[in-house]
């Protein structure tokens, strides 16, 4: 495990001033990078810890913001903002590209070696970046088997990994099937992991505020999903060629 440093970064997106969280591995060399998207509630310490963990592995990691520095713990407020956002691919792409530009211009980032990993709404944004033809080495999503506009998945230029709970009522089997059909028809290199018995947001530790129905933490599957994300990065965004450079 290497030492790392962190800082916040401000940037405009979706008519707001976003406040992202950047984690940098030790050293001064360029490294592969990961754009990290949060659940619909917004950027929290959960995503900051994930960014830290990625930096400790050796990646530059930017956890991006959804709500202009706010965390939406009220489910009604969260849904009121996220549902229109999820229905608007261009808005999602705008939020994603703004954060991706910040990450790509960071001096420690190798701009040709970036992956996008997102959870819930953040995962949907990662997928929309792919559908918009963004230069990514991998896309990983949890709880975000969302479909896009017809034909645009053919613009995805990298492998896609998706994880979902078998009992997730927000991403039920019909939605999963539509997602995999879209990926298959587009010729995408895709994988789907279904975690048995898990609900929506099974990866997210319990919170001290109300949540939408169908949400529940599954610690064992949370660890498995994180290992699967790291495995995706190891395959598609290896660190070996950078270390010692």
TrEMBL record:
Keyword Hydrolase: yes
UniProt KW keywords: Hydrolase
Pfam families with a match to the protein in the record: DLH (PF01738)
Molecular function as annotated in GO: hydrolase activity
InterPro entries documented for this protein: AB_hydrolase_fold (IPR029058), Dienelactn_hydro (IPR002925), FrsA_esterase (IPR050261)
Lineage top rank: taxon: Bacteria
Limits of the Dienelactone hydrolase domain: 20-235
Keyword Transcription regulation: no
Family of the protein in this entry: Belongs to the AB hydrolase superfamily.
UniProt xrefs under PANTHER family: DIENELACTONE HYDROLASE DOMAIN-CONTAINING PROTEIN (PTHR22946:SF0), DIENELACTONE HYDROLASE DOMAIN-CONTAINING PROTEIN-RELATED (PTHR22946)
Name under which the protein is recorded: Dienelactone hydrolase
Higher taxonomy: Bacteria, Bacillati, Actinomycetota, Actinomycetes, Kitasatosporales
């Amino acid at each position: 495990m290497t030492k790392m440093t962190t800082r916040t970064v401000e940037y405009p997106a979706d008519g707001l001033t976003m406040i992202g969280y950047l984690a940098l591995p030790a050293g001064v060399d360029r490294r592969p990078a990961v754009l990290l998207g949060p659940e619909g509630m917004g950027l929290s310490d959960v995503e900051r810890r994930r960014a830290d963990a990625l930096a400790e592995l050796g990646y530059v990691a930017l956890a991006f913001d959804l709500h202009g520095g706010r965390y939406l713990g009220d489910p009604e407020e969260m849904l009121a903002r996220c549902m229109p956002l999820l229905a608007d691919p261009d808005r999602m792409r705008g939020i994603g590209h703004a954060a991706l530009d910040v990450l790509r211009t960071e001096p420690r980032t190798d701009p040709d070696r970036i992956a996008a990993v997102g959870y819930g709404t953040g995962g949907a944004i990662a997928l929309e970046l792919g559908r918009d033809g963004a230069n990514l080495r991998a896309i990983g999503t949890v709880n975000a088997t969302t479909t896009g506009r017809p034909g645009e998945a053919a613009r995805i230029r990298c492998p896609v990994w998706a994880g979902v709970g078998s009992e997730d009522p927000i991403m039920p089997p019909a939605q999963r099937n539509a997602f995999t059909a879209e990926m298959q028809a587009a010729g995408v290199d895709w994988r789907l992991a279904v975690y048995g018995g898990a609900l929506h947001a099974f990866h997210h530790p319990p919170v001290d505020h109300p949540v939408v129905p169908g949400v529940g933490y599954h610690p064992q599957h949370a660890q498995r999903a994180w290992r699967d994300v790291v495995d995706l990065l190891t395959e598609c965004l290896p660190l070996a060629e950078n270390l010692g450079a």
